Amino acid sequence: MNADGKETEKTRIKPRILSGFRDFRPEVMIPRERMIETAKQVYRAYGFAPIDTPTLEYLDILLGKGGDESDKQMYRFTDNGGREVGMRFDLTVPLARFVAQHSNDLGLPFKRYHIALVWRGERQQFGRYREFMQCDFDCIGSLHVSSDIETALVIDDLLHSLGFDRFTIRLNSRQILNGILETVGLLDKSVAVLRSLDKLGKVDRTAVIEEMEEKAGASRTEAENILKLADLNGSNQQILRDLEPMVRGNEVGETGLARLHAIVDGFEAAGANGARIKIDVSIARGLAYYTGAVFETVLDDLPGIGSVCSGGRYDDLAGVYTKQELPGIGASLGLDRLLAAQEKLGMIPEVQTPAQIFIPYFDKTGLHQYLKLAGDLRRAGLRVEVYPEAKKLGQQLKYADRRGFVVAIIQGRDEFEQGVCQVKDLRSGDQNEVVTDDLQVLVQHLNDLLSVE
RNA sequence: GUGGCUGUAGCUCAACUGGUCAGAGCGCUGGAUUGUGGUUCCAGAGGUUGGGGGUUCAAGUCCCCUCAGCCACCCCA
To answer: Where would you tag: which of A1, A36, A299, A319 has the fewest CB atoms within 10 A of its CB?
Structure first.
């Protein structure tokens, strides 16, 4: 303000953020952190160990690993030292570099999880952003189908632990697809063919055939033969039976079929719900490096959001970085898509505070006692906030209510004199007087209240 | 990256064919005799109509550019 009482002329920068990038307020960050924490717990439960890698890598490390598209979508620039660098667009390529660089120290098989941001210069859409978080888990160094089964189990476990009940893990095998393409004579066009095949869910049959003719140079008969795959229907066992004649005599195809069988059987044998996994021969996954099983997970209630957890097996993760052959399998949880889904499905409670217990700063002279009580309760494992000002009690309770605190502990002059406190359940409004000289009693009472959902 | 639709207070929206059109509800802040929230009542703050330019006597309302959001393609978490 100047002498006239008017605001001084000043060039203000309008606060704004880049398209496709986001700010996170507490009410979205709280469920976000919870989801990350849940994913970590699941990964750890299977023995996956955490790693991290730089967001920036030398450009040649990243280029050409995920196909032309990922090259195009990659954020890249020349750094201040004149180096060509890129921001990672997934966590698999950095993993490859990481394992190639440290394989001597890591030992195989190596199981890791990696939760971090990745960047893709793509148009934003619902559930799709330019900066988003991936939660990868991979097992490097084993060819055994056991890790394929485990991958399916982890996906199942993840979705379950995140509170989703209605979802389908779609399973397919690149080996089967390649086997069939080989017998048809289109193996060299596999990428284009599979890309078209992948669209079957969205586009109609004739459009897919036309695209195969156009982009992959397939004949109409060849295209139609491939599309027979999509006609396969029914139970997993039924599809497996139907596939058998289609791959017979082709080594790759037969191997793929046998492995698919083993995954389905192993999934159920481990105690998971077999109905949750569904062989779908039309899913191919765009990524070029998959060579075996491929997974894709769709929420039954929100299929439009796309896959929320996908991955697959690759023979040679790090061939461009090292002579050592490193086969592996893994998948990536789409945290941002799942959060968008939870939001849309009303699975996210509106809470703006991570604390449960609220202590109003009620009696002006009681600050030390409030702080002491809060400290005691925190040491007992509770999350507690003391209001920072001695405002009117009603206003403080209003604040607590809005933020979503569960319990308020009210103490004024009377309570201090009597050695008690009022424990108020902010959801029901019920209030009980509890003695404060025995902390255990109070903590027990609070835990009882908090355990009620 | 390409194409389409949209853009008014923090949020959801209103304002006839360009002319008191800058509003409502919710939210927010404060109050309704000094120890109790989520109900009610009162008051207040808050927008140069995303930004810039143009047409016009006059634009939120028409045109262009730009930014952002949504949708489709591409691709994918």
So the answer is: A1
